[in-house]
Amino acid sequence: MFNQDVLYSVEGKKRWQPDPDITPEALEEMRVEVLDRIIVARIGLLLRHPFFGNMATRLRIVEADEWLGTAAVDGRNLYFNTQFFNAMSNKEIEFVIAHEILHCVFDHLLRREDRDAMIFNIAADYIVNNLLVRDRIGEIPKLVDCFQNFKYEGWSSEEVYDDIFEKYDQEQLEQLGELLDEHIDWEGDGDSGEGNGKEGKDSKGENKRPSYSKDELKKIRDEIKESMINAAQSAGAGNTPAGVQRIIKELTEPKMNWRQLLRQQIQSTIKSDFTFTRPSRKGQMSGAILPGMSFQNTIDICVSIDMSGSIGDKQAKDFLSEVQGIMDEFQDYKIKVWCFDTQVYNEADFTSDNGENIEEYEVLGGGGTDFMVNWSYMKEHDIQPKKFIMFTDGYAWDSWGDPDYCDTIFVVHSNHNKNIQAPFGQTAHYELSA
Description:
By secondary structure, the protein is of the alpha/beta class. It has two domains: 4-252, no CATH class; 259-269 and 297-433, 3-Layer(aba) Sandwich (Rossmann fold), CATH 3.40.50. Helix content is 40%, strand content 13%. The protein is built from 14 helices and eleven strands. The chain has a six-stranded mixed sheet. Strands 1-3-2 form a three-stranded mixed sheet. It has a two-stranded antiparallel ribbon with strand order 4-5. Helix 13 links the parallel strand 6 and strand 7. Helix 6 packs across helix 7 (157-167). It starts with a helix and ends in a 5-residue tail after the last strand.
């Protein structure tokens, strides 16, 4: 995951470095003791933090002094530098092991995509270290000035990345802290079956940096998911961090296709009532006047299209095609559509009677983002929809809106964080059905 040139330029400023002059005999003696202390740390995690302890027992412990200066993880193996682990207390070793586990749990091994490696790795460390410090998992190592700031509490790695990317240059980043471990790009040019990269392994099979094909990395990701579920079941809900529980919930609970959710929510706006205007057939036969059902089949909704600067033409076309899909599905409809960024643009009404085509609608905007302008606009114009649907990329500048004004559905398109949920209403991710 990490560009090596960048890695070494950052690590060159670290306060701690392995001693290059240590003798092989001294290193081997130290390694025996370190392996015992890692086992003690894993037992400590099992006793005090069962989720992390269970996850730790699923990782193979591998010495990597030849290529590794601190610690690293690939989802199957926990790699360690002997001198680094020797310089820490057992509680600090617990912290480092749990740190590596959370990188697996939060899918940091594959989640970076095309983002800057150094900045994403810093963002990932903020997320991981915050959770561990908050939940008092081990003790944060004193050897390294770790990236940790509760300012980012509740943020996603992508949101932290965006914040850092906009505010700091590389020199300023180096003043903020240091990476606790090495975030390595495990993907290499190796074959997909064995996971051995072109750098391969030495005769012992362990001392060279491994690499994996995309297929193998996907297998590892599936293995991690299974391990998470099993570890959480063994630990119990009370012993599994809330952030991890949310991920497991996403993995284990069936997801409703967002179009099904949208259809269900829209249909809920269709009113039905009893009427005595027309007796039912049953009433005619019995001679009694019994109520029949009267259906109001017109759907009446408002649709808001996020056209802030982060929305591209393809997303805008997707949004409009989904509005057309709503029109095609219902025979009788009243749909009010507008665009927004930091203000509302081009309100238009579409009904089954006026014959207007949504494809002719002009999307406007392209500035910043302010979700709240939608609610301000509705209040100013006395618009009270039975259902309000917002198509957005989910990057709210400040508030998501007014939770008490109307029933709201947020359809989130192209947000990197697939676990993002609006603080009210219903949230569905567009890509879930793509």
